[in-house]
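Re-run with default settings, no changes from the original entry. Doing this only to confirm the output is reproducible before filing.
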Amino acid sequence: MHAHDVYDYAIVRVMPRVEREEFINAGVIVSCQRSGYLQAAMALDEARLLALDPQVDLQLVYRHLGSIVAICAGVPEAGPIGQLPYRARFHWLTAKRSSMIQTSPVHTGLCSDAGSALERIMARMVLPLAGSVQP
């Protein structure tokens, strides 16, 4: 029987007007030290974001969210941060900041598969709720 692995995760938030402290959840970052797993998934609900700020620069938001995914993947396009060891990348991504893209505090869980944990957290914390009305 395989023991469960400890993983850390943070919710990626888009806060278009930092001074108002209103945000929507747009993604999840999951890191599992034992397996060397670091991955992010994003799903931006544009309608909800535009309800917070009709003037938000969607291209800029998508570019920032894409950079989080690239840093997690460690691809060359991610620049020097993307070349750090994966735990350093996770800590850099989840560092407290006051910018349009922020993360929640880091939470910890147990899983047998970090990829499944990422999907489960996305479904629970980011994707529209089942039965919700979509425009």
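Strands lie at 5-14, 24-32, 37-42, 101-103, 107-111. The chain has five helices and five strands.
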